[in-house]
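Chain and conformation:
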Amino acid sequence: MYEEDKLKLYHYRQEGKVTCGVPVLIVYALVNRQYMLDLQPDRSIVRNLLQHGMDLYIIDWGYPTKADMYLTLDDYINGYLNNCVDMIRKKTGNDKITLMGICQGGTFADLLCPVSREGEKSRHAGGAFDFSTNDALLFSWAKNMNVDALVDTYKVVPGDFLNAGFLMLMPFTLNIGKYVDMLDVTQEKGKPPQFP
């Protein structure tokens, strides 16, 4: 429906009747893939929302390269995201849309809302955050990181670096946990474990 640089804005085809009068834009994280919300027909947040009559849009941020090293959060939020909101408003004729922020996308939606309130462009669902807490491991880890040195070194922080960070935060949950879950699902009483 709309493209700008690496960004693509998709509009889901509604097979039923649109009963929700306000279009919904899903804003996903830069570091994750938006298709995680629509992996299987029987386990799909997207299909569920469509079945509830929503006019649904989603952003694919694309894969950053070193050419994107000078992009800022302002470029993503007040540039790309704001342009997507305006495009949906223009296409649908609606004055407002709903932003459904997920993960980092929730923070982006929160940061766009004060800007968009001037023109009443959007309202926001989800994405509440408190960066002052030390209760979460990720917050503690990030607060003690020299982000300037990281950016100076990599220019564009690689996804593998972020993945390694998440693995260090919960090594057993992310690695061994998936195999334990498989055992629980595949093991029948009295039979040895079956691995796929």
Observations:
- The chain has a mean pLDDT of 78.
- The chain has seven helices and eight strands.
- The chain has two domains: 1-129, 132-185.
- The first strand starts at residue 2 and ends at 4.
